[in-house]
């Protein structure tokens, strides 16, 4: 499978030690002792989906049916394509894993990289972490239980605190091949390719797919945009290179507005909790949900970053007082005419 092909690539890159399985970077507390929580949270309606996930995972050598030294809870969450995603709750495990410093590319890098009239494609990888094998010793700490049986992860699970750093660092030499012929922004398992012309973008698409498929990486064609365009969604933003503008994507727009509507209903009935407010602040700040578009000047960084500094300042000014919070937010965030009275029903 993909892990074996990656093993050959690692050998070629002088990283043969990884072919025996990655060792988890344990922190000062060391590996866990005890059995943890072998909780399997799913409904009867989820049973068929969970069974399929386990069977597929065993066939792909992501899981193995075996006893473990430590168990973490698991559950399923629905995703946009109608399927379920298997989640291992590794909160307790993460307390024992060392932090690995690394730098991920973000929306600021996109703003600095785009130029007027450039052509864009994006790719999305599926089960990217499943290509990174874990050493047999450390697999024993990646246990979970389902249908009365014990299982272990054989590959890097989603949610492990060190996973983004490990995946990014291992992908870097492989993605250098793509960067040799195209401007590229990579965020975890999502990639943006930027080209000066439509034809160059098409050629870059073909070469990029060849490199990814040679590694047995699975491309999610439903989430990818492989026909060159001058407007696409990336990082939750809609980037447009003819007019050099960027605005919140329609999906993120609706998510933010839905949360604001819910908050306003609670606000009008005096049922707002600190937790509710904290969640709203998190969405508006972390997703930077200002519902207006920005014009990118030159490479865009000055206007893009300056706009967000102003917006964060407006939020900080608005939030100290509950009575003023959404009066300010309605003016500053331009919530498409939504008012407390219209959301109280």
Automatic annotation (TrEMBL):
Coiled coil: none annotated. It comes from the Eukaryota. GO terms for molecular function: RNA-directed DNA polymerase activity. Keywords: Nucleotidyltransferase, RNA-directed DNA polymerase, Transferase. Signal peptide: none annotated. The keyword Cell cycle does not apply. Residues 58-239 form the Reverse transcriptase domain. This is Putative reverse transcriptase.
């Amino acid at each position: 499978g993909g892990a074996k092909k990656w093993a050959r690539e690692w050998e070629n890159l002088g990283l043969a030690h990884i072919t025996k399985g990655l060792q988890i970077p344990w922190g000062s507390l060391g590996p866990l002792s005890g059995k943890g929580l072998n909780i399997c949270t799913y409904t009867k309606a989820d049973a068929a989906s969970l069974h399929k996930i386990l069977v597929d995972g065993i066939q792909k050598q992501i899981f193995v049916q075996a006893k473990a030294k430590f168990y973490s809870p698991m559950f399923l969450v629905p995703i946009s394509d109608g399927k379920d995603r298997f989640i291992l709750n590794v909160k307790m495990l993460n307390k024992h894993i060392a932090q690995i410093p690394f730098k991920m590319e973000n929306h600021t890098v996109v703003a600095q990289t785009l130029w007027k009239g450039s052509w864009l494609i994006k790719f999305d990888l599926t089960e990217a972490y499943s290509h990174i094998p874990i050493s047999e010793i450390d697999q024993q700490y990646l246990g979970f239980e389902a249908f009365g049986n014990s299982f272990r992860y054989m590959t890097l699970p989603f949610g492990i605190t060190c996973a983004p750093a490990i995946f990014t660092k291992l992908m870097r030499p492989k993605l250098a091949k793509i960067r040799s012929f195209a401007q590229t922004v990579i965020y975890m398992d999502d990639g943006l390719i930027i080209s000066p012309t439509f034809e160059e973008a098409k050629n870059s698409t073909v070469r990029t797919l060849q490199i990814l498929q040679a590694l047995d990486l699975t491309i999610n064609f439903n989430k990818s945009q492989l026909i060159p365009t001058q407007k696409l969604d990336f990082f939750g933003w809609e980037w447009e290179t003819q007019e050099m503008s960027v605005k919140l994507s329609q999906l993120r727009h609706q998510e933010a507005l839905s949360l604001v509507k819910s908050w306003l209903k609670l606000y009008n009935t005096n049922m707002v909790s600190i937790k509710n407010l904290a969640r709203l602040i998190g969405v508006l700040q972390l997703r930077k949900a200002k519902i207006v578009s920005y014009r990118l000047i030159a490479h865009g960084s000055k206007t893009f970053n300056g706009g967000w500094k102003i917006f964060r300042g407006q939020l900080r000014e608005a939030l100290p007082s509950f009575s003023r919070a959404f009066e300010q937010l309605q003016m500053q965030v331009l919530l498409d005419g939504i008012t407390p009275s219209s959301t109280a029903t």
